[in-house]
Amino acid sequence: MRSDAASHQLLPKRIALPVFASDALSSVAYAPDEILLTLALAGSLAAIQSIWVGVVVSCVLIIVVLSYRQTVRAYPSGGGNYEVVTTNFGRTWGLVVSAALLVDYILTVAVSISSGAAYLTTAVPALAGHEVVIAVGLVVLLAMMNLRGTKEAGGAFAIPTYAYMFTIGLMIVVGAVEYFSGTLGEAPTAQYELLPTHGYTDGLVGLGGAFLLMRAFSSGCAALTGIEAISNGVPLFKPPKSKNAATVLALLGGIATTMMLSVLLLSQASGVKIVEDPATQLALNGVPLGEDITVQPAIGQIASAVFGNGSVLFLLATTVTGLILVLAANTAFNGFPTLASALSKDSFLPHQLYRRGDRLAYSNGIVILSLAAIILIVAFEAETTRLIQLYVVGVFVSFTLSQLGMVRHWNRALRSLQSGSERRAILRSRAVNIIGFMMTGVVLLVVLVTKFTHGAWITLIMIAILFLVELGIQHHYRTVASQLRVEDWSAKRALPTRVRALVLVSGLSKPSMRAVAAARASHPSALELVSVVADAQEEAKIRQEWEESGLPIPLTLLSSPYRDLNQVVLQYVRGRRRRSPGEMLVIYMPQFIVRHWWENIMHNQTVARLRHALVNVPGVVITTVPWKLGEDAEVEGRQLINDPFKRTDSRVGAHDFTSDEG
Questions:
Q1: Is there a contact between 184 and 265 (Cβ–Cβ < 8 Å)?
Q2: Residue ranges per domain, the chain?
Q3: β-strand 584-593 against 499-504: which pairing, if any?
Q4: Backbone CA torsion sign across 20, 230, 342, 8
């Protein structure tokens, strides 16, 4: 795609919603499960409190959505939390937020894909045990689709996302009708009782119970992930960008809140049980099962109760839920490369992440995100319950600092002159961000306290490492820029007083003669042939060729009894530099190029290795002179005679400087 086609890649609201909201909407598929799973540790009575935990999570979600609607209007350039915090608190805190967000995006892909793989194996039991392979394959598939371009990927993902919203909405409506009419079926696990685990036999009473409630709340806050991606993706919206982004945020908040609360209500009404260890946590008539049974996710069990197990609508619900969990990772595939591009522009990440690929997508960012997510999936064996313990920490670090940054933004705005109505609007906006800061700050503390020993410490280490890497990359670019900067233009324009050219050869073959011609054409102050010989026979051969050629160029022979070409040449070149530090030293290296790539394996890599070694010698200019096999015939208009028995050139030695790869 041409660069000027970027405007045609902008997203309308109907496409932007599935592109940016799939992560938050998909959390409906696993956030309720995590709440129920955590509360199940304290038994059946504790699990009843899941709806109230969901209500508190919904309140936080609504406040965060309202806050980000203000962020996309105040900072529409696409920097999101990174731009907000950097502008209001400086680079250091901005880098903390960026590191937290990048880690969160990687975890989003790992968690969503792993959860999607679990749902797919539920729908197709024959795939059980292959979750890691499935998850890795899904990451690769998503990456390939995103490399095609943002709009193309969004169009492909829109239909499954809307199918998911329709199916879950239908399940909620039908389930509500059946509940009020008394015809709602039972979930597959409704017949079982929940047995409290050791340490929670008293339910939610006492400090342990309060801690368990906070842990359930922190797990449920996974429903908030993905909201910040819209603030990073404002430039991808069609004009008016900020208004459209704010509208999508409002739709996202309303749909996600409704779906999550409805799923928790139907879970309670149909008797859904979600446990980590069915053998010890589930009982029948007061007797522990003593064996593992398959416990489907909450939506799968609700679909079984509402539509009937094995029905067409049941299969549709489980299938589209698995799809949306996979597509939820697409939010990260939009947010991560965009944020990485902004950081790359500021020299905190490699500059290769800044520019778009040939399909106008940030190709390098997509590839890096995919590789990082695959590493996590393989390391944690695609187990959602293990991965989700690492989740949420990063996003709430960025949430909290971003809210505080917006408070400072409004405080600065209040110091300028405004009319009464403008001042009241700013005060209302600041109040929303203050409440958002307090709520997200509390959630962050709860998450750190409840999940630290369960894996959150790994996330904090990842954030710290990435933060240090960003600082190191910036230091590198600053060092390079300072050393590349020309401070005295008059001195840099002066020509060297003397130029010495060395032509490295092992025999006077056609490639070597072309290198000699190139060196002579540059009219150096001094020119010499340099050849490395291992024994008297090689020395006699090169001397004979040199005498027969009649070249008016001195020949320097370097002895290498140990056959170490690199060290001998390096020693000679460094000696030349020490003796004449003021002269420019240009080294010409002949290189022949084979006609087919597979022919490279039949030639050594002398030129490549020596060129790599010489690059590190200060004050040396390296010129490679290529010569392609059959090139003379092509130039003269003759066809190359491909005769394997015809001797083309007897002077190409086994360690010839020209015997290199194409």
A1: no
A2: 3-330+381-403, 496-635
A3: parallel
A4: positive
Chunked into runs of 10 residues, the chain (662 residues) has average pLDDT values of 62 83 76 85 78 89 88 81 89 92 88 80 76 90 82 70 91 94 90 80 69 82 79 82 90 90 91 86 82 82 90 88 79 84 89 77 88 92 78 83 91 80 86 89 84 82 94 91 74 71 89 91 92 89 90 91 83 90 90 78 75 87 86 56 44 42 34
Q: Give me the amino acid identity at 547.
A: E
Inter-residue contact 503 to 528 (CB < 8 Å): yes
CATH assignment of 496-635, among 3.30.310, 3.30.1120, 3.50.30, 3.40.50:
3.40.50
Residue pair 352/337 in contact (Cβ under 8 Å)? The answer is no
User: What distance in Å separates the CA atoms of residue 478 and residue 476, rounded to the nearest whole number?
Assistant: 5
Strand pairing category for 620-628 and 584-593:
parallel
- Residue 550 tokens, joined: 């009649």
pTM of the model: 0.71
Cis omega before residue 240 (within 30°)?
Answer: yes
Three-state DSSP at 415 gives coil
CB 224 within 8 A of CB 329: no
Structural tokens at position 453? 């020993």
Q: Could you tell me which CATH number the domain at 3-330+381-403 has?
A: 1.20.1740.10
CA distance 612 to 659: 16
Residue 373 to residues 2, 78, 195, 364, Cα–Cα distance (Å): 30, 23, 36, 14
Among residues 277, 220, 271, 224, the alpha carbon closest in space to that of 47 is found at 271
Quick one: how far is CA 272 from the chain centroid?
A: 36
- By the 10 Å C-beta count (0-12 exposed, 13-18 middle, 19+ buried), 359 is classed as middle
The yes-or-no answer to whether 3-330+381-403 and 496-635 have a common fold is no
Tokens representing residue 210 in the block: 């309060």
Identify any residues that bridge with 556 across adjacent strands, giving them in sequence order: 530
Structure tokens at 248: 């999508």
